[in-house]
Amino acid sequence: MAKCFPIFRKENESVVYNPDELIDLFLDCTADGICIVDMENRFIRINQMYTKIFGYTEEDILGRTFLEFPNPVEVVQIVEAVKLGKAFHNMNTQRNHKNGNRIDIAVSYSPFRNSMGEIIAIIAIYRDISESENIKRELKRTRELYRLITENTADMIKLYSMDKKIVYASPSHEKGIGYKPEQLIGKTVYDLILPEEKEHFDRICNAMIETGESQLFQIKIRTGRNEVIDSETTISPIYSEQGEVESFVAVGRNITDRIKNDDVLRNLDRLSIIGQLAAGVAHEIRNPLTSLKGFSKLMKNTSNKEKQDDYLSIITNELDRIDMIVNEFMSLAKPQAIQFERESLGSILESTVKILHPQALLHNVQIINHCISNEIELLCNPNQMKQVFVNFLKNAIESMPNGGTVHIDVLKQEGKKVLIRFSDEGIGIDSELMGYLGTPFYTTKDKGIGLGLTVSNKIIQEHNGTMKVESEFGKGTTVNVELKYI
User: Fold this and answer.
1) How far apart are CA 142 and CA 157, in angstroms?
2) Percent of the chain as helix, strand, coil, to the nearest 5
3) Confidence (pLDDT) at 264
4) What gap in Å lies between CA 307 and CA 201, rounded to an integer?
5) What's the mean pLDDT in 58-74?
6) Residues 6 or more apart from 209 whose CB is under 8 A from it?
7) Domains of the chain (ranges plus CATH)?
8) Would you call 272 helix, strand, or coil by DSSP?
9) Residues near 259 by Cβ (< 8 Å), separated by ≥ 6?
10) Structure confidence at residue 448 (pLDDT)
């Protein structure tokens, strides 16, 4: 074997390195930690990367045996096997740094032979894999955490592909809707929701894809027990590396009991309204009844055909008036199926004002409805919206015991939204009490039950709207409702 080699030549000159210098260059330039142990288990060489990985310098380690340092038990057996010519590659293990910290290492052991092929030492190559192992452990821990969450949460978690097929379902579905997870894999969302909900779900799904934002909605689901439940569900997009939505996750919960409780509260609030309006309606009906009695007697006491026709016309008009009052009153009292339909905002407000007209007369209050156009249409439940508006107007009337005026204004906003504003000239609300508004059963009225604003706010939220109350003590109150129109 040649003693020296001409390498790394510059132009017109020759630089010669001997083998020891070459070994030093190689050891110092490699990205791995390297140590060489002789056949008596003594360290004879280490490189700079070995020092960086383990913290031991040449002064700390050269001439000492590896048995003097903490090592896994199997290292002794491995070294003896290498002395017999066996090699070990990329063995993941943990070793101690000089400071006592545990580090993750990938190590390879190979026999070091001379030119005669005799094994004269053992070479060990180390690579610090602590960072990648920590990532793996964190990933494993996160996966385990997600597994524990999905397997123990009461919420129903599903992962959908973009063609709306279920690729994962949490165990909670068995208790929630009577399906084992394996029964749901491969089904589409349309196999679970009611047929009439398909358009609603597609609209929500498209909104999620277009905006990239999570969508919260309510939907009806048919269970494995052939029951129908109400589910509150959030769907969120999952993106590919290219930034495209490749799947989405749905988290749902059974809110059937909550909806029933909400319905009870709404009915309680509606019955309270009806009871408080009854006196005004009775007063409004009494006036035409008085006319009916009087003109009926006049008809009996006259044989004049012309007068009888006049009296009959008046009686018919008064009956129509009674019919209108009763119909508007009953529309508020009848059961309200949760079903959305197209309805003119103007007609809803006009009907609401008619319902409150008797109450307003009793309190010497004038309601001025500035919305005279029917061009704004809502996708809503008309009876529920009437209940909301009746609450606002009734509160306004009761805040003006000495009479006054309530203004209803309608303003179009950007983004297909409409602002409905109810403004009164009442006593207003103290700033200290504003924070309690909307709290269930909190009321400032002697005969109130404290559900009006709570129920109203819930209904407005279900219509994807917002409600805001502005008030100043002694100067009146304004309720702003913002809704989407079609």
Assistant:
1) 17
2) 45, 30, 30
3) 65
4) 64
5) 90
6) 237, 245
7) 17-133 (3.30.450.20), 153-254 (3.30.450.20), 259-484 (3.30.565.10)
8) helix
9) 230
10) 46
